[in-house]
UniProtKB/TrEMBL annotation:
CDD domains found in the cross-reference section: CYP6-like (cd11056)
Protein name: Cytochrome P450
Organism name: Hermetia illucens (Black soldier fly)
Gene Ontology terms for molecular function: heme binding; iron ion binding; monooxygenase activity; oxidoreductase activity, acting on paired donors, with incorporation or reduction of molecular oxygen
Family statement: Belongs to the cytochrome P450 family.
């Protein structure tokens, strides 16, 4: 009985200590006289039942009339949330020198794939970005264009076979297989063919990456130093081993056989040839290790296959709900292709302006990532206020909330591609559309993402008509436990028929 009493007392004391510690940490913004979102134990401002940050974004924007900036908590970590578009533009562009870091978890020793360009900070990020940017010029896109079209033709053949069996098609998996094959070919020079074989190893590891628990990401974001001390990794070891070994074998084969494909892997090889192996500099001014190369290739793979496939899924969903917009897109595609003798070329997709507006409206309503992160590298006085964003403070920009702000986009739940007519866009601040970020840390691969998405949608809309079916959720329900915006259960069924 005495032992039970002692154990119970210790447990109660520990719980009380933890609870009081959280309550003390939740005084950070109050003690500074800042307006803030009231946190809840133990996740702070992360919705316990709806973990996706879309809800956090929407809640934050409700306070924009009272303050240009509010405080919030990621578990116990205080973060700043700018609400005014002008302030957001300052952070991302004008005053970028004060916010050039992201402060994202990097642990090269235990989690080598975490040291990719998206996560890196400071001079190391700048060097990597400068070296890798040539991969995504318009010239490189034109070179890769035919490869993406070839994969799209296989995609068309696969879908044609499926609709002979059934008309209700699950599109999330199918489109992820399409983008997996595109990235496998353009980044690694490997014919994945997961469209034919859904169990192909690249597809297998792509799925494993998306299944990494969101709570693990949240933990390393909230407690990065502790996570490094306990040797925590975000990417499982078997995933890291697969990508590192794939890059190793690809590079060995190309160097031994003098193979050139003018793709992402070739660029990494050329960077190493041009680098000084004995350099003491930072970033990749010195020779890249296989792990460094694998980390950058891993970023290309993950960012390229999941975000683009999600955009196409949501676009087809909205087109199924809005048949008039779908027909207008299809008519534009047919008209432009007639000018090019039915050949899908780089120049042809550049002329499909209404399709581009439709994709932008999809990215407005369903941005793949609900927020942008920046980290103050020095104290930053917020203009026209007495507020100071302290050095080391992370800034969470509520991208999803901005995209759904009725003052910027009237009736934001309505799908309307005309929002992105040139004359409409001129009336809005550039900071009102942030699907690819903004400023020097914007998405380096946005040209590739746009090209891949356009080719996929042109191929589908030219050949198929999409309608809702009994399995289609109306309205859309978002999966709360996935980092990238995705339909509930990561599935979306539409009825598909041949045009």
């Amino acid at each position: 009985m005495d032992c039970l009493f002692i154990v119970s007392s210790i447990v109660i004391a520990l719980i009380t200590f933890v609870y009081l510690t959280f309550k003390w940490k939740y005084l950070y913004w109050k003690n500074r006289g800042m307006q803030y979102l009231e946190p809840s134990f133990p996740l702070g401002n992360i919705p316990f039942k709806k973990i996706h940050f879309t809800q956090f974004s929407v809640d934050a924007l409700k306070l924009k009339e009272t303050s240009p900036l509010i405080g919030a908590y990621l578990v116990t970590k205080p973060v700043a949330v700018p609400l005014k578009v002008d302030l957001i533009q300052n952070i991302l562009v004008k005053d970028f020198s004060s916010f050039h870091d992201r402060g994202v978890y990097v642990n090269e020793v235990d989690d080598p794939l975490s040291a990719h360009m998206f996560n890196l900070d400071g001079e190391r990020w700048k060097t990597v970005r400068t070296k890798l940017s040539p991969t995504f010029t318009s010239g490189k896109m034109k070179f890769m264009f035919s490869t993406v079209v070839e994969v799209a033709e296989r995609f068309n053949h696969t879908l044609a076979g499926l609709i002979k069996i059934k008309s209700e098609i699950e599109l999330v998996d199918l489109l992820e297989r399409f983008t997996t094959d595109v990235i496998g070919s353009c980044a690694f020079g490997i014919e994945c063919n997961s469209l034919k074989d859904p169990n192909f190893i690249f597809r297998h590891y792509g799925q494993k990456v998306t299944e990494v628990p969101l709570l693990r990401h949240l933990f390393v974001s909230a407690f990065p130093n502790f996570a490094r001390k306990i040797h925590m990794r975000v990417i499982d070891k078997d995933i890291a081993d697969f990508f590192i070994e794939t890059v190793r074998k690809t590079i060995d084969y190309r160097e031994k056989n003098n193979v050139r494909r003018n793709d992402f892997m070739d660029l990494l090889i050329e960077i190493n040839k041009d680098s000084n192996e004995n350099s003491e500099g930072v970033g990749i001014s010195k020779k890249l290790s296989i792990e460094d190369m694998a980390a950058q290739a891993f970023l290309f793979f993950v960012a390229g296959f999941e975000t683009s496939s999600a955009t196409m899924v949501f676009c087809l969903y909205e087109l199924a709900l809005n048949s008039d917009i779908q027909e207008k897109c299809r008519q534009e595609i047919d008209d432009v292709l007639k000018k090019y003798d039915e050949n899908l070329t780089y120049e042809a997709i550049e002329e499909m302006t209404y399709l581009d507006q439709t994709i932008k409206e999809t990215l407005r309503k369903y941005p793949p990532i609900g927020f942008l992160i920046r980290k103050a590298v020095r104290d930053y006085p917020v203009p026209n206020t007495k507020v100071v964003i302290e050095k080391g403070m992370e800034v969470y920009i509520p991208l999803y909330g901005i995209h759904h702000d009725p003052e910027i986009y009237p009736n934001p739940e309505k799908f309307n591609p005309d929002r992105f007519l040139p004359e409409e866009m001129k009336n809005r601040s550039p900071g009102s559309f942030l699907a690819f970020g903004d400023g020097p840390r914007n998405c380096v691969g946005q040209r590739f993402a746009k090209m891949q998405t356009r080719i996929g949608l042109v191929t589908l809309l030219k050949n198929y008509r999409f309608r809702t079916c009994v399995k289609t959720p109306v309205p859309m329900v978002i999966e709360p436990f996935r980092g990238i915006l995705s339909p509930k259960g990561s599935k979306l069924f539409l009825e598909v028929e041949k045009v």
